[in-house]
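Q: Hi! First time doing this. I have a protein sequence and I read that you can turn it into a structure. Is that right? Here it is:
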Amino acid sequence: MGTTLDLSGRTALVTGSTQGIGLAIAVDLARAGARVAVNGRTAGRVDAAVAQVREQSGGDVVPAPGDVTTADGTAALTADLPDVDVLVNNLGIFDAQPALEITDDDWRRYFEVNVLTATRLVRAYLPGMRERGWGRVLNVASDSAVVIPAEMIHYGMSKTALLAVSRGFAKEAAGTGVTVNSVIAGPTHTAGVEDFVYQLVDRSLPWDEAQREFMRLHRPQSLIQRLIEPEEIAHLVTYLASPLASATTGGAVRVDGGYVDSILP
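A: Yes, that's right. Below is the predicted 3D structure, encoded as structure tokens:
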């Protein structure tokens, strides 16, 4: 088998892949030979992302628009894309909010978008993977699942729940050739994170200074002392999606820049 990350002949769906980490994952999977379905809510943004992934990867990329945060949206997407070999649940929301100001609706929204969306898609695609005897489910979690941030405990809660969901579905897939893992991503440089950083530091600071200030004040545990680039997350996802990771399942695999101060998650 060697060390080649070869996903030729496999179809991968990456939710929330029109930008940021999801877009980087789509590019990396396509470079590894997978046929990649790019997902987002609007057809226009999906088409633009498909063109970008094709340009960067030279791979086989198809649009898969749809709002997977709803049951109807998921049903429509799975009808158009009935068989998936690699499911990457990347879609998620986050925002800073004082703990005592998080409303019931906020708690429900974070659970529904960050946890239930992934769970619904696993239910849709895992049976087919088991029947075919091969598959990969990867749920993109966060260091916030383990180190709950004081400024967004509702987000941390949702990512902790996603770790439990991943472990449980790994048991459901036991012995079938299907693996289920979560990926604990650390503080990552995306457009959304830039907005988040400027919620917590002086907006007048240039980006490089703002990033350093954010890491110093709010993420001092990071051992790399910088934000992670989306491509660094994508490389781990592609490895876990490949045949080389056949003995890794039920895990919470960290690509967090050493942020979580623990030997195990």
